[in-house]
Structures are given as structure tokens and as C-alpha cells.
Amino acid sequence: MAGALACAAALLPTPAEAGQRWTPYTRPATYGIVEEPNVSIRMRDGVVLRANVARPDAPGPHPALIIQTPYNKDFIVNEFLGGTSNWFVQRGYAVVTVDVRGTGASGGTWDSFGPNEQRDGAQVVRWVRRQPWSNGRIGLTGPSYMAITQLYTAAQRPKGLRAIFPIVPLGDGYRDIVFTGGQINIAFIPLWLGLVTAGSIVPSPNAVDPSDPVGSLLSSLTALVQHVAGALSFQVPAVLDSAVGGEIAFDGPFWKTRSPLEVVDRINVPTFVVGGLHDIFQRGEPLIYERLKNRVPARLLIGPWTHVGASTGQGLPRDGVPDLREIALRWFDRWVMGKRRATRIARMPRVTQWVWGRERYEVQRDWPSPRLRPKRLHLRGGGRLAHRAPSGPEPAQSFLQHPLSGICTQSTVQWTAGLLEGIPCTTDNRLNELGEATYTTAPLKRPLRIDGPALADLWVTTTARDAVLSVRLTDVAPDGTSRELTSGWLAASFRAVDRSRSRVVGGRLLQPWHPFTKASVRPVTPGVPTRMRIEVFPTSAVIKPGHRLRLSVGPSDFPHQLPPLPQALGSLLGQVRVLTDDAHPSFVELPARRKECGGKCRPYPVPQLIRGRQ
After folding, report:
1. Are 186 and 242 in contact (CB under 8 A)?
2. Are residues 319 and 208 in contact, defined by beta-carbon separation less than 8 angstroms?
3. Which of 22, 109, 171, 563 could potentially form a cystine with 320 if both were Cys, beta carbons 3.0 to 4.6 Å apart?
């Protein structure tokens, strides 16, 4: 009886699906702006960071928001976020924008989320809290790198920090972005390193202090020398080491330090996570929410965005979801400014996601959905994707291993952060699929709702010593258009799975966790069937009646990634065969959502997808 009551309760409208809904919230601009450029903040080791301080032109003290950036606070950030920063100042917040060490006008050398930079974040919070214009109540905000610094700063629990609002944050440095599937991200990483380096060698327009022109000029020249030295000691060696398959090409201490999921358990302040279904951090954003949701007030908003679009909440307001600035204002007004009654945060939906196929935002109880139930479709001879497993021999599909497949796919737009959006062939994968093995369902009779990560469990052979696979899930419209929903990648030599750190739902592996260490590397024997369980990044979609679902398997994902040199030499020009016979049943495990709970109403446990504490 108790089980039946629990099951019935699970089916009732929940606050996030019924009582909780998006409502408008905003306040008019009230204040003018007072600006102080290049304010010095001295760190414990003597390195001086530089910050621009903008505060209301009214007697303080005021609550403060901090933005920590490597992209030069006076140029890139000022142009990109300046309007947003001033918008908050006009509504009563002081905004402090800091160049992280080794970038912009700040001293020191940059090492991208290294231990010194992480400690700097907490020290900046302490500095802001002690200023006469600050009331000691502080929030952190900003997208991308500025979101990641929030997580590291919050994990140190500095006094005065009340809330954070990370927009498109990274979760796992290795798996999310730099070495997805064990291959180098050559689309975004060089662009990103070049952006940071350029922002670090362009002098600040406010670098020369009229009251001390000689001293300030010498300080700027010293910082420039440190930045150039930092590029030579960090950026250049990191790229070269990755390319030749050195230590950085494997997961280890370097990446553990640069993976916020390792430290999010220490965060004890309300956190609002914003992500994108086609963002470069698509994998990690819901995982960050998932690890925080039972510990602190947390919310998750995922839009139909690439990295650039998500950074500003492109297209909002829509479907009742407010403008992203107004959502952040509501969050900070509640937790930083203390406006409890007016903000009504308790009614804000816990999870809001864009749904491909329905082309709209929908609120839901949680992520992953409590109604998640894996649905298995088998790859079959003749390019079919079907419910029934093979019962005998079936013909295999094959393709040639080479590094230049993937240009005409959505992946090109996603992994260039949205900068190549508009290339016609990236909205329809059919051209790229000519060089891939494809498996497609019959037209669906009922809608199929998928929500979360997926698994491509494939048996393959290769004539080479390694195989590098790229898999894609696409929605095939009645006119044949093949629109990419999500994708996944893996080198066969990295196929080892640690099941204890993987997501298993209902006894089925759904999100495999690969160690990607030197010790986990497994040899690939030419001609011998090899099983590869490939993590497919999370998505949210409905495949409508009349549409078909397709899984394509290809040799690469250019320009997103290239294999490190040893991997490339071991796989190049190999003939890869995808096996679909009864002895080697390949399948895809989908994150389907059921309409009824079927007696299993307990929420799914948070898997240990990282090495961090539970």
C-alpha cells in the first residue's frame, strides 16, 4: 500500500511542473554609475591583480557582484559584458571585474585554473568585503571562464559569499572539452588560448596613472613580460605535449585540478546553472546541477544554445522564460540583497530545458528526470535501427578511417562556440553521412521523448591498430533532413569502462565513465571484434510521429578534434566495420522518459562520474 501511495504521489503534478512556473521579475534602473579603473588588489604572494570597480552613485554600502576573467576586462569583457555589468550597477550592486593573474592588466603568469588562480578568487572576495562601499554581501557572476572561476571560488567558502550564477560552466576539463573521447579539441582550444594570449599582451587604456606615470608604466611593462613568459611556459608546452600524446593527453593530476566537478561538493551557497544543448560544456552543466541540487538551493536552465548564444541567453524572453539578466537579478536580489518576499524564489522552476522537436522551453521536476527509463534500439543489417536484437548473421557496414569527416555537421558550429553558425551544410547531416555507417528507425507512430545522456554500445573491427569513432543521434524529418541532436566520441584504445563511476539506470549502463589514463589503455588487435561503449552527450528532444531516429557512426569529427599523433598513426586508413550480428549485438541505449512510474518511484542516485567525494 505504501509503495502504491508513493507511486501515485510521484505521478501527481509537482511544484516544478505545476505550482512552480516562470513569472516576470525586474526592477527599474535607479542609480547612476561611478567607475574606478585598474584598482590594485594585492595577493598573498605579492602579485597585484587589477580590477575595474563600478558602483552606484549613491551613499553605500552596497552588495557586490564579482566577475573574474582572463579575457581582458578593458576590451573583450568590457565590450561583451559591459552593458550587463552597468545594468546591475543601476539596480544597486557594485560590480568588480578582475583580470585573473597573468592576464589583462594583472601581474603574474597565467596557468588556467591553477592552484594560485583558484586561491586568488577567495582573496578577491575578502578584499571586496572589506571595502567601504561594500556591505559584505557578495555574489559571483559571468559566463564561460567567468563561470568556472565562480565554482572554484565558492568551493573555498569565503566569508560574505551569498550566491553564484555560473553561465555555461565547465565540469570536467578532460572529458567535457579538451579531450572528448580521448582526442584533442582543435576547434576551440587553440582559439581560446589565442584569445587569452591576445588579451594579455594588449595594454590597458587605463594602465598609466597620471599621478605616477613612470611607476605605472614600469608596472605595465613588467606585467607584459610576465604574460609573454607565461605563454611560453604554459600555452605552448601544453599544446605541444597534447599533440604528441604526452602526459597532458591522459587524465591525471593536471586535469583533476582543472575540473570543477572535483570540488563542487564544497560549495555551500545557492547556485543557478545555465547551459546549452549545443554548448561546448554540454556534458558538464547538468552534472554540476545534479551534484549540487540536494545540498544547496539550485536551479538549471538549458537552452537551444551554442557557447556564444548561451552566454547572453540568446532569444529570451520566450515561452514564459524571462530575459537572462532578469533571472540573475531575481537570484541575486533574493540571496545577496535579501529580498525574500518579492522574488518568490521558491516558485522558480527547478529545471527548465529546451526540447528539440517541440521547439520550446519546458519546466520539469528534476534532471535527470525521475521518469527516466532507458530504451534500447539495436543496429541491424541493412542500416536499420530496431527494437529486436539480431538472431543470426547480418552484413556489416564499413568506412575508411580518416581525420576529415564531420565538417558538414552541427558539431562544426558547436565546437567553434557558435562562430561558424550559418554554414548551410551544418544544419543537415546527410552529406556527411555518405561516408558513415547509418542506422535508422522506421517512421515513428508515437512521439519518443528523450532526455539525458545516451550510450552507443558498438562492436567493431579494424584493419589498423586503433579505431577512432564519432557517433551522432539525428532527427530525420519526412523530407529526409537529418538534424543532429547530440554526439559522442571514443578511441578504441581508451574503451575501458569504470562501472563504479558510470551512470547505471534500471541495471542498464547509460553513461559510461572511461578512465583515459595510461594504465587504462588497451591494445586493439586488427581484425578482432572490439566492443566500444561510447558516451553520447545529453540532449532533450521529442522525435515526432512520422519522423525517424538515426544513429550514424563515422571516422572523425573535424574540425572539432584530431587524435594525438600516436593515436592518429595507429588508426589512419584503417578499414572499420560495424558489426550487427547475433554474436556481436550493437545497440544504442536512449534516455527515454516513461509516462508512468511503473512502481519505481525513487529518484535515481547521483552517480560518481568523477573522482570527487559523494
Report:
1. no
2. no
3. 22
Cα 578 from Cα 461, distance rounded (Å)? 7
Q: Which residues pair with 57 in a beta bridge?
A: none
Give residue 102's region: left, alpha or beta (phi > 0; psi -120 to 50): left
**Residue 387 phi, psi dihedral angles, 5° rounding:** -70, -40
Q: Label the pairing between strands 448-462 and 134-143.
A: unpaired
pLDDT at residue 195 is higher than 60: yes
> For residues 481 and 537, is the Cβ–Cβ distance under 8 A?
no
* Residue 341: exposure state from Cβ atoms within 10 A (0-12, 13-18, ≥19): exposed
Q: Quick one: 387 exposed, middle or buried, by C-beta within 10 A (0-12, 13-18, 19+)?
A: exposed
Where is average pLDDT lowest: 119-123, 234-238, 509-513? 234-238
Q: Which residues pair with 352 in a beta bridge?
A: 301, 363
The amino acid present at 613, given as its one-letter code, is R
Asked if residue 205 lies in contact with residue 74, where contact means CB atoms within 8 angstroms, the answer is: yes
Q: How far is the C-alpha of 236 from the C-alpha of 245, rounded, in Å?
A: 14
Any residues with CB less than 8 A from the CB of 84 and at least 6 apart, and which? 312, 325
CA dist., res. 568 & res. 245, Å (int): 10
Question: What are the angstrom distances between the C-alpha of 567 and each of 155, 467, 488, 555?
Answer: 36, 8, 18, 13
pLDDT confidence of residue 604: 63
pLDDT in tens, 357-386: 999 999 999 999 998 999 999 999 999 999
Q: Determine the Cα–Cα distance for residues 101 and 264; give it in Å rounded to an integer.
A: 22
Name the DSSP letter for residue 351: E
Instruction: Choose among 561, 581, 580, 579: nearest CA to 571.
Output: 561
CA atoms within 13 A on the CB side of 254: 18
**Placement of cell 569583457 in the chain:** 77
221: which 3 cell numbers?
611593462
Q: State the Cα–Cα distance between residues 363 and 361, nearest whole angstrom.
A: 7
DSSP 8-class letter at 230: H
Which of 182, 184, 295, 292 lies closest to 238, judged by CA? 184
What is the CA angle 418-419-425, rounded to 5? 75
Query: Residues 534, 186, 539, CA angle at the centre, nearest 5°?
Result: 40
Beta strands in 381-520 (DSSP E): 384-386, 397-400, 437-440, 448-462, 468-476, 482-491, 503-505, 508-511
Determine contact, residues 50/84, Cβ cutoff 8 Å: no
Count of all residues that appear for the chain in the document = 614
| Cα–Cα distance, 318 to 358 (Å, whole number) | 13
- Closest to 33 in 3D by CA, of 102, 106, 105, 85: 85
- Alpha-carbon distances of 581 from 249, 336, 442, 589, rounded to whole Å: 35, 59, 20, 17
Q: What is the pLDDT of residues 102-147, one digit of tens each?
A: 888 899 988 889 999 999 999 999 999 999 999 999 999 999 999 9
374 to each of 354, 508, 509, how far by Cα in Å? Answer: 20, 7, 9
Query: Of 393, 437, 395, which Cα lies nearest the Cα of 582?
Result: 393
